[in-house]
Specification:
Length: 465
Amino acid sequence: MGNAATYFYDANDSARPTLHKRVTPNDSQFEEQQVRWNALADFLVDDLKERSGYPIRTWLQGSYKFATQVRPVRMNEEFDIDLGIYFCWSGHRDTGDFSPKQLKEMVQDSLGRFGAANDDVIEVLKPAKPRCCRMRFKGNFHIDTPCYHLEEERDERSLATEDNTWEDSDPKSIYLWFKDQFEESHRGRVRRLVRYMKAWSALKFKDRQGRPSSLLLTILVADAAQQLSEELPAGDDDALAAVLQKILGRLDDNNRMVPNPVDKDENLVARLTDDEWRAFVEKIGSFSKTAASAVLDENALAACSKWAVEFEYLFPLPDTKELEDQVAKLPAVRTLPEVRVSATSRDNPNLRYTGVNGIGPIPKNCSITFELTNGMSMPSGTQFYWMVRNEGDEAEDISDLGHTAGTGLKAEERSAYKGSHFMDCTAVLGGRVIGLKRVLVKITGVPLPKRKSQRAALIRLLGRR
């Protein structure tokens, strides 16, 4: 088992800030989503039944159903839920009273009715997406509602599209395929591996247009894990490295084919352009190379730092005590980074705070400067990388878990969330980590009241003239 295994997942310590914990929605986010999709489902069943005259069924699908949902990796991105709406009539899909386009318009209109009666709805997306309608909620998430014809006797489904055609589509069969691939005892591990891949993809493919689909990543991971079977390593770090090697061996620039396992005629990479496919294969190759190197590293900090190349601020680092022990064992360490920290309240510039290798508690809405004091004492050619890693409920609730903060001798940030957060400064020489300093930033829960001007104070003392 690699030295970073417990930084991926630790079954013995639920409080530990592992990668899996950082990419998985927390309990309150799961609960909020569940309450809202249940309310929407109940409304749509009644409203659409009355308007269409057909029995209505709903079925959750996608990553929420697969239990592989990941939190958004950047602020202002949204959780995604797929709630399938099924119009039920006997016989062929073309024998119903409505066309595919009419069914989609009916769902779009019902969403509008629901939104008009609920303050937590931001909008119903217009125009509707080609294969679903979308409703956006406060709290950074949306619900997509694809609609289908369901022939219950034969258990057959057809997806209604915006261009007024039916598509053969059966989300239930792909879910059952995934579920049947693994025993319950192994299914949880495969789901974690899928989550890691999806979080990595969201980080590395910022443009959703060129990002590999969630289903494609799920199938690639599941197939690789199935092929490895009993040979799948115990630790999640080793397991991910092994899965990546299998995936890379499967991908081919000249053979762009990953079939849907329940519909061999569907190619899951067909929606990627040639350039997007090549970019995907190239990034998988780089990811696999990083993983293979990280699992062989005997130093936990060095291994974590390599994984952080791919997972960036999502990947946790050792706590302060363990970090100091690991840094001391790094090769070529001569001098560790030392960081001077200063903060100034934006609400009252007279309030200033300073610290060395840490600061706080400070209020929200401070400008913070981090500056290396001994950068020139580090070996010639050393590069310094700054990374913010946020922790705590406030940051989690809006999915701001961190970001890269630049390179060089100085970094600028702002205090925004209550809790304990870290600015990590990593010293790299020749591609190897030779030092790291974790700067703890403690932030109190409330911003300071804005400073009143001296003129306002004089008016109170002297009276307005």
